[in-house]
Amino acid sequence: xxxxKFKIADYRKxxxxxxPLEHYIYRSLIDLYYMDEKPIPKxxxxxxxxxxxxxxxxxxxxxxxxxxxxxxLDDYFLDTEDGFLHVKIxxxxxxxxxxxxxxxxxxKKGGRPKKLINQQLSEISETQTKPNGNPKKPSxxxxxxxxxxxxxxxxxxxxxxxxxxxxxxxxKEKKVSSENDQEYLTAKGKKLTGQNLKNFEIFWETFDxxxxxxxAADSWLKIPWKKSSEPDAKSCNQxxxxxxxxxxxxxxxxxxAKILTGQIPKxxxxxxxxxxxxxxxxxxxxDDISPPLIDxxxxxxxxxxxxxxxxxxxx
Length: 315
Fold this sequence. Notes:
The protein is mainly α and 315 residues long. Among the domains are: 8-100; 184-289, no CATH class. The protein has helices at 8-14, 20-36, 44-50, 62-76, 87-108, 117-129, 160-181, 194-207, 213-221, 233-260, 268-273, 280-284, 299-310; strands at 78-80, 83-85, 183-185, 191-193. A hairpin with a 5-residue loop joins strand 3 (183-185) and strand 4 (191-193).
């Protein structure tokens, strides 16, 4: 894997305590992990040499470099039998492998079928050259169209662009009509409809912990949305919705790391009822490049419980 997304603000926020050499070590370990597509080996001397620190750095001894390497590994990696594992990178590699396999299978099938252009041109040519009893002078129309109009033609003929716009407008009207007819019944028998239902579906997909959807819908209705008759209702409700989505995205991205540290993830119903989007910590954090600092006392217990779900070294 030769490319990955890197969010500078998230990285800096989680590495403020590192010194310059530790920053270099962590960034180099991230690159090494993505390029090799496997956990960092436990061979300390081999890793130090791969990072270019074999003879020390900036008049610093080998032992000091080894100490800084251990600090970074303890802070951001899980010590497993297969090496030092990084939760976020493992998830990226699995998604990358899944996409690559899908593209490879499509390539074996030859991609999309080619258009039979030559065959179509041949059929048109045969139609034009076939004798038709009483030959007539060319009319200037394509074969298969009427040579003379049966009624008075419009002095402003419809162009291809106009036809496309009209078709697009009709499809949009059908879509709006279909969305207005949709409704969702909550666990307490209440109905979610219209834009409120659409917003809830967006939240449900963003939160990405799909359990007890009908109960979560009841909690969604209890959110203190402003009524349309109140001043600035639209802008206030939009701010609440954006705040919910931002926090829900963070909750989804950090859920696996919470499980690894022994925390029980919140279901959507409880998350909405407790109004967790108002938590300033949830609102300010997004898609960290690194997981929370690892508590070494419970590390071995955590690794044993998470190895089956997280670690995949078949590649």
